[in-house]
Write a structure and sequence with these properties.
Blueprint lengths: L2 E6 L1 H4 L8 E4 L3 H10 L4 E6 L1 H6 L1 H5 L5 E4 L2
Parallel strand pairs: 1-2, 1-3, 3-4
Length: 72
């Protein structure tokens, strides 16, 4: 199994560290896009905030190899 990554507002995602996810804090659209650009291979599950998912909408649509969970 690949890496579990949580991307978005650190306050919303902090608890995911407890289950072994790597948390990448990013709040602004520029921070979110920069974090996405730095992602390497090996990520199987992306947990993201609604705001981050909205910024990355087009990129996420083209990733058949990545399971994405968007927090409400």
């Amino acid at each position: 199994m690949g890496q579990v990554l949580a991307l978005g507002d650190a306050h919303e995602l902090a608890g995911f560290v407890l289950v072994g996810a790597s948390v990448v804090p990013a709040r602004t659209p520029d921070e979110i896009r920069a974090a996405w650009a730095r992602l390497g291979g090996g990520v199987s599950l992306l947990i993201t905030t609604e705001a981050a998912a909205a910024v990355l909408d087009e990129e996420l649509r083209h990733r058949d190899d990545l399971l994405t969970a968007v927090l409400p």
